[in-house]
Amino acid sequence: MNSILNVFRKSPFWTTFILVMVKMAFFRQFTFGGIQVDRLLSDAAAVLVLLCVFELITTSRWKSLVFNTTNVILSILLFSCTVYFTFFGNIPTYTVLHSLDQVGGVKESVGSAISLKFFVFFLDLALLAVLYLLTLRSRDDKAESKSAAKPLYVGIALLVAIGASFLYIRTDMKITNELVQAERLGVLNYQVATAVNLAKDKKAVENGSALETMETLEQLEQSFIGEGEGGVVEAGSSNFFGVAKGKNVIAIQLESFQDMMIGLKVGGQEVTPVLNDLINKNSFYFPNMFQQIGLGNTSDAEFLMNTGIYPIGNVAMSKAYGDREIPSLPRLLAKQNYVSNTFHVNDVTYWDRQDLYPALGFDKYYDRPSFVNDEFNGLGASDGEMYRVGLEKLTELHKKNQPFYAHFIATSSHHPFWVKKEFKNIEIPVELSGTQLGHYVAATNYADKALGDFIENLKKNGMWEDTILVVYGDHHGLQPKENDPAWVEKVLGINYDERISRFNVPLLIHAPGVEGKTYGGVAGQIDMMPTVANMLGISLKDEGYTVFGKDLLNTKRNVVAMRAYSPKGTFFNDEIMFIPGKGFEDGTAIDLKTMEPVEDFSKHRADYDYIIEVMKLSDGYMKLLPKRTE
User: Fold this and answer.
1) What is the mean pLDDT of the segment spanning 381-391?
2) Fewer CB atoms near the end CB (10 Å): N or C, the chain?
3) Assigned architecture for domain 212-624
């Protein structure tokens, strides 16, 4: 045992390098599904840069401590990145550090992404610790090495490693697909490439303006739609413009709600009878809407509903832009004398909503202290309790003839979807009992019932006929590793694709006295705000608002992009879901109807180029918005 420890003490540089490279190989196996030796060279170059620097600046006395600490830090990094990849499907960048304080709020969800095999990253550290403790008394201090690698050789190695990393980064810098870029560069060089790209974007934005962004977007839209294509009808002369003018607005954001639950029966029971009834009774329904959230998850969905602007993708919008004055639905409605309130049963500090809500222009928010905590789940009170308080506040406004906009963030269908017996309203079949899918069915069924009770109370209080209701899902719910698509198809009797079905969330809009219909075209969460504005009779162009979504009631051609859980460049149009490779040519396309691979997708190249440019414009626009003065 002494001899093993002596090896590490005498050659901390090389032993650390070897151990870290073994872990890099495991990381590639866990995340990319294989180990490519040529790609490991990029990892080796980055690791050598770090170790050579430490070798040159550290005295012999401290080398063992410094290199062991480096090993520990890199082990934690690789473990964290692997868990993150399992949950999000992407490799995290250093920008994710902004969101570390949110982990405690979703620890059950994060815990579900951890596999026992991931702890292999710490196996050597545990072994060395045990060996050290067993040999502590018999330790031969003379075994400590006072020698060090010759600075000249280390310096040469450092220059070679820096040069190699530079070449790797330069070669792969322009790859749009972040996952492919991370696979080619390795986790460390990928961070450097991200920093360089963000610096370039920042410099480009500094020379831009919001007016130029608006003009460029208009030109891009005109080019994309094409002459005579029948794309977007100008607000003011469009279908359904002003059909709900002056009406109150209630938006319900359903947690982790996938569209496949709509119309589904389990054991002969409707999972969402309330939503089914709304769709069948004069609501606009968009069954092909897809999530577009960034790393802010639920909070990014709130942002999308209220702005029609893309999340930036690498950090939650509440974290990055909570200090801005963001053009939004609450600000638009304030000009119409509306009061805007938002309701969420968790602490307002979760995802920094105490900054997000003022940035979006909400007059007031109601968070955890406003509700009686019936401990529905880890986030706090049930949807039923949230709606109870909301009804009280809205009734007060209604009695004053005060028009309002109310945004409810429902959380009862949040992962891990465990519903207490007293809240359950559906019998789960034996084949689903104890599974995540079974829990999910029970949770979404409860969320549907709570919404139904709220609607009935709106009717009793005389508000239903004065209110436009928007109901949508914030993001997917089912985790791929616990729900094999073939099994889901079998037990539910539906077609299920782990990408298309997973990212497909519902949207329905009910306006009193308006005959609704089902729209089969593709839609995105970015389209919700301009669609609602049209129905309220508000022309975004006249108001000088720049939005990157489309009014779904007047759009014949649409394409929507994803910002998280799939590589940049992923988009949906009326025919396919496209996932890029290094670029467009080596990407993958899936037919939305058959859920089968599409071999020739070359005709969709214009859609890919369009969404890349639109997202770039959206990101730049956000960075140009002024900071709040209050």
Assistant:
1) 98
2) C
3) 3-Layer(aba) Sandwich (3.40)
